[in-house]
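Record ABC-type Fe3+-siderophore transport system, permease component, 649 aa.
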Amino acid sequence: MKAEVEPLRTAPFLVAAGLASVLFAADAWPAFQAAGTSAFAQIYFAYAVLPRAAMALIAGAALGLSGLLLQRVLRNPIADPSTLGVAAGAQLALTLATLYAPALLAGGRGMVAFVGGSAMLGLIILINWRRRLEPVGTVLTGLLLSLVAASLGAALTLAHGDYVMSIFIWGGGVLSQESWEPTVQLGWRFGVAALFAGLITRPLVILGLAEESAKSLGLGVGTIRLVALALAVFLASSVTSMIGIIGFIGLAAPALVRAAGARTIGMQLLTAPIAGALLLWLADGLVLAATVGGRDLLPTGAFTALIGGPILLWALPRLRFSLQQVPSPRVLHRLAHPRIALAIIALVLLAVVAVALCVGRDGEGWFLATGSAFAELMPYRAPRLAVAVGSGALLALSGFLLQRVTGNPMASPEVLGIASGAGLALAALLMLVDMPGPALRFGAVLAGSAVALAAILAIAARNSGGPERLLLAGVALGSCTGAAVTTVISDGGPEAMQMLEWLSGALQGSTARQGVAALLSAVLLLAPLPLLARWLVLLPLGRPAAGSLGVPVDGATRAMLILAATASAAATLQVGPLSFAGLIGPHLARQIGFAKPLHEAAAAVMLGAILLAGADWLARMIGFPYQMPVGLFASLIGGLYLILLISRR
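=>
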């Protein structure tokens, strides 16, 4: 007797279709009525309103199918083109081709996007292959590589000014259309991919079995995986080449159809594209409903990222973690003479500062600034170097405190979404207040950092699971706040360039006042550390042990978190959200062998300062006469370092 198959619950689909239809009618009906009054209104309805709705449906269907294929092949319930970096790789490839090889775009953007997306997915699979593509580590790698790709893309945008500002805005996922051509192109691509997906339905069923069982049934596992991954990348890169990055639709659509009762792969292949189409059509309808003065308040892709972060947070308790859990930061070996090691690090910091001040390039090559040349360059180099040193020290201090309090070796203001929370508050301030002063900016950034820190710790308290779960929660929170920052930038107003410069950590305009403020903030916030030495030793032992030894656990934790949030806010305001000095400084200090908290803190602070000071000098030298923003340059280094750290676990 066959087991009864639970029927598909159609209510979620009908509700989504109804809401999307109502929103579409509210936007299209006035345009349809106006079409009979003028030729322009008729053209607008036929070539803007209708193609946009069709594009939303086709792009959503393509992303839904792409996400399902990725999840099936990788056996990863949170895989989709955005979490695996496929979309970010495609966008970066398009940006590079636009700037440096426009001839490649003559035959269409699809192939360029496909190569970029394939390269990114291939790199992620290569990094995680040794761990059998463990779900959380694979997605973490994808999200972090996406951050690195976004940093590089933002650096290119700043370097080429208004020429590629439109690429940045387009990359936020804009569905606005001016003709039917892009929609038709994406439509036939989706049709071809859907046909091939249907042809491999039976192999996909067998692929759901254990690999040994699939091979025993005569299935070429490697070939089927390669075909399915190629189809997924083809779909995702095609969407990205047409409308930019649309995040999390590929994650939500398969989850929705499984929740609705689609158990077989055949039913999922049929319904996931429908769910994706309805979700994106609904999301775009909500964006259109919030349109002000004929302009979208935010790109549709930014809106999907805004709601995708909570979806990822909702999925956290339902994930299985197979990575080795690390209970607390630990020192692999202890230095016999830590004071000597600290002195050496201090000398390295002084050497980096000296090089940054004295060594440079001009039209004739490298030169050493001395005498009058040194005096002329000091007003330009010293302030930005002071900001870099002070901010690097502050971020390392914040990371050190967060790692001590949470017992998480991957905790830092950058990767836990704290810096992104600061960006959200800064974006809101710039939209509400014209030309806010430094004090108001710092207050907003501090408030945003504190709220984001409280949110991420609350999530961690509810969801045990070790460093990877907390890190994934931080990245998800960063996705939400990053969507708001993208909204401000895509608006194109005066605050857009301010936010883009902040996002990149550009220090070109640093003043002497800012340099003094950064160094003074570092000194003032480092001063209380000796008073916290006992807490720093005992808190990592755990709440019961620390409390039994007389530590006021709640008060101590609160004090150190306030100190960490303040240090993060003071630094993030200057160098942006993506430097990773808060992660690398403390981690390197432990790798070197500093065991005592104050020794580790001192080493971490100096290493953080070295990282940003060195990054600032390299950012000025590598692309001479152009300058890369120090925050983005440091994020390239830090993001790759973090990926290496994850891959070795």
